[in-house]
């Protein structure tokens, strides 16, 4: 007897609408910075100035609710060359976590990486790595990660380096 798998319903926010993920634009830099501040204060993200968000706006994806403009989450995909990229500045605003925004951002970033012909994506997390593991990431020693990026990780923060081959 064959049974069909029950399709998983799309995750929606409290407004019932699915998230919208789009590439950030220059005018989004202040919102990206403001969204990241709580995570910077908690130590989950490294401090970055508004100028960083301006200079790297094209690396960022921004999550909003359909029909809304406020930034609810963001994630950057930095190209390290030689088919390698890094995910950084991944955050979803408090009160909006667990609603599929982070997963939508990560799916979009991985699709973008594939489009760019990236072969492997690295990230570092100070929180539990279970979210990334559910999305196919595995532990990777810093020796495998891009040297300049790995050198910028603060050992005192206890980051775990993860990777996913595409």
Sum up the structure in keywords.
166 residues; alpha+beta; Aminopeptidase; 26% strand; disordered N terminus
Structural notes for this entry:
Strands 1-2-3-4-5-7-6 form a seven-stranded mixed β-sheet. Strand 3 (73-81) and strand 4 (84-92) form a beta hairpin. The protein has one domain (19-165): Aminopeptidase (3-Layer(aba) Sandwich). It has helices spanning 29-42, 50-55, 101-115, 130-134, 147-151, and strands spanning 19-23, 60-65, 73-81, 84-92, 120-125, 138-139, 160-165. It contains five helices and seven strands, in the order E-H-H-E-E-E-H-E-H-E-H-E. The relative contact order is 0.15. By secondary structure, the protein is of the alpha+beta class. The termini are far apart.
Helix and strand layout, with pairings?
Blueprint (H helix, E strand, L loop, with lengths): L18 E5 L5 H14 L7 H6 L4 E6 L7 E9 L2 E9 L8 H15 L4 E6 L4 H5 L3 E2 L7 H5 L8 E6 L1
């Amino acid at each position: 007897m064959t049974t069909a798998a029950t399709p998983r319903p799309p995750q929606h926010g409290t407004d019932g609408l699915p998230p919208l993920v789009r590439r950030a634009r220059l005018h989004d830099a202040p919102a990206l910075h403001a969204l990241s501040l709580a995570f910077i204060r908690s130590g989950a993200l490294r401090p970055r100035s508004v100028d960083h968000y301006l200079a790297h706006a094209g690396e960022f994806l921004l999550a909003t609710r359909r029909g809304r403009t406020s930034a609810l989450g963001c994630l950057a995909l930095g190209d390290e060359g030689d088919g390698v990229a890094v995910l950084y500045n991944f955050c979803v605003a408090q009160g909006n976590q667990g609603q599929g925004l982070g997963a939508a951002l990560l799916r979009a970033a991985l699709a973008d990486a594939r489009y760019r012909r990236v072969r492997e994506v690295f990230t570092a997390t100070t929180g539990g790595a279970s979210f990334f593991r559910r999305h196919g990431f595995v532990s990777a020693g810093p020796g495998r990660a891009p040297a300049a990026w790995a050198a910028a990780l603060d050992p005192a923060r206890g980051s775990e380096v993860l990777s996913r081959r595409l």
